[in-house]
Structure formats: structure tokens, C-alpha cells
Specification:
Elements (H helix, E strand, L loop, with lengths): L2 E5 L5 H15 L4 H8 L1 H4 L6 E7 L2 E9 L11 E9 L8 H15 L4 E6 L4 H9 L3 E2 L15 E6 L1
Parallel strand pairs: 4-5
Antiparallel strand pairs: 1-2, 2-3, 3-4, 5-7, 6-7
């Protein structure tokens, strides 16, 4: 399978929304924070200085992820970014698309001078957690956890850059 990653284009909007809705509704329920981020992605991600990356296969978007300033400012003097809305089309999961999107987001963070990347996920998403661990993210201890706008998120991880 030959897929490529690239920056988001306005024509990718519906694919970004659909891929994220699909995985969230497959495992959980769409929450208000999801709706706000998906329906208003121009303001909630791009408008906050974020970047969306997509993976394409035969010019069809099959994976997504975004990186943006975090929803919580830890106030530690570091330049943090947050990864959100990682998704892959169900029939092509497990074929390296998530890794490619994640790698492009980490490269983007490095290019803009971030010190660390934070993300949150759910303990039931074993493949996602394994991907993050293999990419160098570490689990936050209980005393390091940030507030979360999501009921489903019970795992938080960080990558020091």
C-alpha cells in the first residue's frame, strides 16, 4: 500500500470530520468537545495556530491528525503542543497510516520549536497507546495529569522533544 502524508487542504474538511466521527462513535459517544472541534475546525484547530496532517491513498484521505497549542497551559515555561483527532479509516488500520501521520505531526512540532507534545487517549485503545509508546511518548503519573474536556480520556502521555 502506497500512501502519502501532507498538510490539510480545505477540500479535506469532510474527510477529517467523517474519519474522526467514525472512530469516536465506534468506541465511545461523540462529546460536546468533539463537536466543537470537528464542526469548527477552522477556528478550533487552524485558527489557534494548529496544523492538520492527512494521509492519502489514491488521493483519498484515509488518515488524519492535528497538532495545536494545548487546551491547558501548564505554566512551566515550555512550548507545549497537543495532538488531537488521530484517525485512520477502518479498513486500512494497522498498515502504518497512524505512524506516518504521527511522525509528520512530531516533525511539525519540532519545526516550530516545541519543547514537548501532550496527548490524551483511552486505555481501551491499545493499538493507539502502543503506537504512542513506540514513538517515545511516556505515560503521565497521577500527579502530572492535566484537566481534560473529555469523559472518555483516561490516559495522558507526553513526548519530550
Amino acid at each position: 500500500m502506497a500512501f502519502t502524508t501532507r498538510r490539510y487542504r480545505p477540500a479535506d474538511r469532510q474527510a477529517f470530520i467523517d474519519l474522526n466521527r467514525d472512530w469516536i462513535e465506534e468506541y465511545f459517544a461523540l462529546e460536546q468537545s468533539d463537536r466543537e472541534q470537528l464542526e469548527g475546525l477552522e477556528a478550533s484547530i487552524l485558527g489557534k495556530g494548529g496544523q492538520i496532517m492527512v494521509a492519502t491513498l489514491d488521493d483519498i484521505v484515509v488518515g488524519t491528525g492535528a497538532i495545536l497549542p494545548p487546551h491547558h497551559e501548564p505554566g512551566d515555561g515550555r512550548k507545549w503542543l497537543e495532538i488531537v483527532k488521530m484517525a485512520a479509516q477502518k479498513d486500512v488500520r494497522g498498515q502504518g497510516i497512524g505512524r506516518a501521520v504521527l511522525d509528520s505531526l512530531v516533525a511539525e512540532a519540532r519545526a516550530i520549536g516545541a519543547d514537548a507534545i501532550w496527548l490524551e487517549t483511552n486505555g481501551d485503545l491499545k493499538a493507539a497507546i502502543h503506537l504512542y509508546e513506540k514513538s517515545g511518548f511516556r505515560h503521565l503519573a497521577a500527579d502530572e495529569l492535566w484537566p481534560t474536556p473529555y469523559a472518555r480520556c483516561n490516559v495522558q502521555m507526553v513526548l519530550e522533544l
